[in-house]
Amino acid sequence: MDSSIIDYISQFVKLTDDEAEILSSQNLFRQYEKNEILLAEGKYAKVCYFIIKGCVRSYYIKDGEERNTDFFFENQTIRPVSYQTKQPSEYYLSCLEECIVAIGDEARNRKLVEQIPKLFSLVAKMNEELLLQKQLELDHFKNNNPEERYLNLLENKPEFLDRIPLYHLASYLGITQVSLSRIRSRILNR
Amino acid sequence: MDSSIIDYISQFVKLTDDEAEILSSQNLFRQYEKNEILLAEGKYAKVCYFIIKGCVRSYYIKDGEERNTDFFFENQTIRPVSYQTKQPSEYYLSCLEECIVAIGDEARNRKLVEQIPKLFSLVAKMNEELLLQKQLELDHFKNNNPEERYLNLLENKPEFLDRIPLYHLASYLGITQVSLSRIRSRILNR
DNA sequence: TTAAAAGATTATCAAAAGCTAATAAGCAAC
DNA sequence: GTTGCTTATTAGCTTTTGATAATCTTTTAA
């Protein structure tokens, strides 16, 4: 049994042995191939994900082109917008690498929170933190040009550069692949 | 007594008369002049705000220039990043107009949630919703050019155009004032 | 090992944004 | 009114990005 989830949650709240047992017995693991789709546009997200291993890419289609919005790695939770809104998803979730993922559907999640009430405030805390990060990310994006944003990525998320192809990073940075390539060469020749 | 807060909360959860009474008796109102600073960079945010009347601008300084991050109007809650993180604020909050604001410090807020427990899940719900909005806002910002972003503002937040000077909107749109002016004339002559 | 596919860079040209400065319009105070 | 201050537009020039196409490199699979 993989203990990633228990380890992850234990960073934030103390779990009793019973609670840890509940968690580890409840979780459902699945393996996905590279490029396999977890969630497609138009579908309803019935589940949340916790990545044990691998990398998941979130994107949507604008003018026929994929626009990447997020990349998720090990020990990250994916709670699709569609899971929250109960509306058809506007986003795709697709595996950038072969992935091992823990999956929780709504009934399972609700039952878990009933059995371990402290999970409720943990989720609230995590959402607060996520909200904060999104705010900072948006502010940064608005007030820095593409070159600054690329340098910021190099500095703060080097794993993105290691594991994600540049042509995917380009739309994540809000620019074209060609422009990103020019920025990189501009930085090199300086 | 102003009933904005009660009315606002009642949209989301049913309040008993007792609970409404607790809320309306607890709240502290303050009036601020135009251009008065609610929170300055480097200060600790000890309180949250709920705007009864007026408009508050959030900004920070980059390269000596003000960069606007948000504008808050009537019936909006401001929960400063610094209030959440307990770190000195990187943002300013300043009144764009004369304002009437309800203020709640941490002790008061905590006590309120104790007396009216359903407020806890309300706040959690609101944070979820805010997170969703920020995600959409960020995605939109990344994948639309300045002209599209301006048109989107016209379409979806016309009150911004009515109540906020263009030179403040420019940095909110991630461009210069001059560029915004060009975009506007480009749209007109078409 | 070789061919095909995927990923990255370079070149050219047009469109848009930044920078700076000048000008114009709107509005409040005297 | 007219003076000053704030807000908005316009102009000239430079830099950057977008669009498209061609080329080069790396990875994958036969």
Key traits:
homodimer; 190 residues; alpha+beta; Jelly Rolls; four-stranded antiparallel beta sheet; 9 helices; 8 strands; DNA-binding
What this model shows, in words?
The structure is a homodimer of 190-residue chains. With 190 residues, chain A is an alpha+beta fold. The first copy, chain A, has one domain: Jelly Rolls (Sandwich), CATH 2.60.120. In chain A, 49% of the residues lie in helices and 23% in strands. Chain A has helices at residues 4-10, 17-26, 81-85, 106-115, 118-142, 146-156, 158-163, 166-172, 177-188, and strands at residues 28-32, 37-39, 47-53, 56-62, 65-72, 77-78, 92-95, 99-105. In chain A, the strands form two sheets. Chain A has a four-stranded antiparallel beta sheet with strand order 1-8-3-6. In chain A, α8 packs across α9 (177-188). The radius of gyration of chain A is 18 Å and the shape is globular. The mean pLDDT of chain A is 94. The A-B interface holds A 60, 62, 67, 69, 81, 84-85, 120, 123-124, 127-128, 130-132, 134-139, 141-143, 171-174 and B 60, 62, 67, 69, 81, 84-85, 120, 123-124, 127-128, 130-132, 134-139, 141-143, 171-174.
